[in-house]
Amino acid sequence: xxxxxxxxxxxxxxxxxxxxxxxxxxxxxxxxxxxxxxxxxxxxxxxxxxxxxxxxxxxxxxxxxxxxxxxxxxxxxxxxxxxxxxxxxxxxxxxxxxxxxxxxxxxxxxxxxxxxxxxxxxxxxxxxxxxxxxxxxxxxxxxxxxxxxxxxxxxxxxxxxxxxxxxxxxxxxxxxxxxxx
Length: 181
Known about the structure:
Elements (H helix, E strand, L loop, with lengths): L2 H23 L17 H4 L1 H19 L5 H21 L4 H20 L19 H28 L2 H9 L7
């Protein structure tokens, strides 16, 4: 990893952490939709600096947001692990970007949803009330998966496509930034 890769890793880690913390302090905190997750698909474009950066950024932000909460240690440990797995999936499936984004979102939904119910009570998904017969963890898995699909497979995929255009990629390459093909 050279100095540019290290700098890009730091940028992604910082950007992710700042986006999570700012969202947590704003009125948008009531949404289960983690806006910072829209950066996850960029692993298909920038590779390992994104993968490492978003994993570290998730660790930092989850430590800040969740560590003091009861069972918050689960979010500090398993949230970054979910980001790591999702970004690697998207990186590996970079030739099939939408499939990678969907699988990455589902991965985060399954991992994070499986423990988040122990930390936070799940919110209704866009006003939809789940039947009371559905277990709390099931509600949380569905809620996090739906929000991850929106953040990663819709917003993030759109961001990835916009940044993948030659008029964006070529100037980045000409300035020495490595872009995964």
